[in-house]
Amino acid sequence: MKYIDLLSTLHKKTNRNYLERVMDNEFPKAKASFLAKKWGKEYWDGDRRTGYGGMHYDGRWKPVAKRIIDTYSLTDHSHVLDVGCGKGFLMHEINLLCPGIKVYGLDISEYALNNAKNEVKDKITLGCATNLPWPKNKFDLVISINTLHNLQNYKLHSALKEIGRVSRKNKYVCVESYRSEEEKANLLFWQLTCESFCTPDEWKWWFEMTGYDGDYSFIYFE
User: Fold this and answer.
1) Rg (Cα) of the chain, in Å, rounded?
2) What distance in Å separates the CA atoms of residue 29 and residue 135, rounded to the nearest whole number?
3) From CA 218, how far away is CA 38, in angstroms rounded?
4) Would you say domain 8-17+57-184+194-219 falls under CATH 3.40.50.300?
5) Rounded to whole angstroms, how far apart are CA atoms 123 and 202?
6) pLDDT value, residue 11
7) Which residues of the chain have pLDDT under 70?
8) Minimal CA–CA distance to 148: which of 206, 213, 90, 89?
């Protein structure tokens, strides 16, 4: 198990006004979070204050896909699972860079599945990370990016166990975290769907408790 930063470059490209977001009168935080947690159009393609503000394919996931392929030496014989794949943009980029590879996805959002990239839509399953509908040791690599922190603490155990169960080799998860009171406040102000607010040490405790032995990284709101 090791720390591998595959996401921070992409994460830092977004400018965030934390106070503006938390003090919005039209979409106060409770209302915005309520709408976002429906995982429907409001979250994916609605107002920026209730989610992504329109998640459209623009190729931004290509560098991340390249780093994943290189880091885990993926080939056209590899089987990969993306837990919390959303509309499948990362899946699509991996397919483009490594033709022939078998990439599957899972997401809790029916809206995301229905509006997924056409090239990978038939490889996405509707479901929850706590119960992955694949057999033991199915995948060479299981990834979960910006997803597990959306689970309540009592569900994290099952999700991390499930990731370990279906992977026969490599695993990588990226979750939101904080290292200071300032980063904690920023996370609280910005997040809409986060349920598990953990420091890096607390996340590592979860990994140890569940026997998760894969790689990991954290997203910070600096």
Assistant:
1) 17
2) 40
3) 25
4) no
5) 33
6) 92
7) none
8) 206
